[in-house]
Amino acid sequence: MKEIVEIALDKELDDFSMSANFYEEYEMDSLGAVALLVEMQKGFKVKVPETEMSKILTGNDLRELIMKLIRNKNDADGK
């Protein structure tokens, strides 16, 4: 998770916390949110609906969404 967030924000996060608010604590803006969406899709091979991005505020939110999307993808693929 940390690597994806760092790539999206284009900065190193020494004190990364899964509960930290990306917008408040890491100063993520709308471009960072788009970059995060792209990195999630590339890194985890899932399609992230844009409507879900507004729900991603923390690393915990990100992890939960990725797990949900992977489960849905596996169910659709019959795995």
UniProtKB/TrEMBL annotation:
Gene3D superfamilies: ACP-like (1.10.1200.10)
SUPFAM superfamilies in UniProt: ACP-like (SSF47336)
InterPro entries listed in its UniProt record: ACP-like_sf, PP-bd_ACP
Domain named Carrier: residues: 1-70
Listed name of the protein: Acyl carrier protein
Biological source species: Pectobacterium carotovorum (Erwinia carotovora)
